[in-house]
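Workshop exercise sheet. Pairs work together: one partner reads the sequence aloud, the other fills in the structure field after running the prediction. Swap roles for the next sheet.
Pair: D.N. / O.F.
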Amino acid sequence: MRILIVEDEARTAAGLKSGLEAVGYIAEISGRGDASVELISTQAYDAVIMDIMLPGCDGLSAVRQLRSRSNSTPILLLSALGDVDQRIEGLNAGADDYLPKPFALGEVIARLHALTRRGGETKAILLRVADLSLDVPHRIASRAGRLIELSAREFRLLEVLMKQVGQVCPRSLLLREVWDYNFDPGTNLVDVYIRKLREKIDTENGPPLLHTIRGVGYMMNETGP
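Structure field:
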């Protein structure tokens, strides 16, 4: 599962990232509240760990902004301010859980397990890579304002790739998530659909976004593999 850690204290952020990755999570770090709002609004995370005291905007304001955008990504708030009033304010802002500092890594992981079980699959309102946008609920794809016609399978393939932006997507993952295959059928099915998708989303007016990682899989990224 993919977790965003919003924490400006480098040592705390690094410790959380290392601990989460050790138990199998994909963990990313953002050091600013305002930047995290844009990340969570445009990318898919299974949960967010967010400190309250942040530059840009504080964690409570970030939570309020996300909930006002109808973003329901589960959020676990962290703060050195552990009094009851602070906890109530965080939950009223729309956070799903609250953990005071100092905390034990095991408790953070247990809280994340509970939140992700409760929240189910995270669905960002809008996925975006550079000028490519995917409105998942309304099933609308566009690049630089130009609508892109996609079949249902192409749309699902693009959704999976964009949710893993910057990460290599092996063929096995794409077969499982797009075609429900838990085995390799021994065909070039994925490659055919990738080629069709690339023809539709990578135009002459912008940088290529869909990259082949030879021998491994594919990656969506603005800056290349």
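Discussion prompt: The mean pLDDT is 86. What would you look at next?
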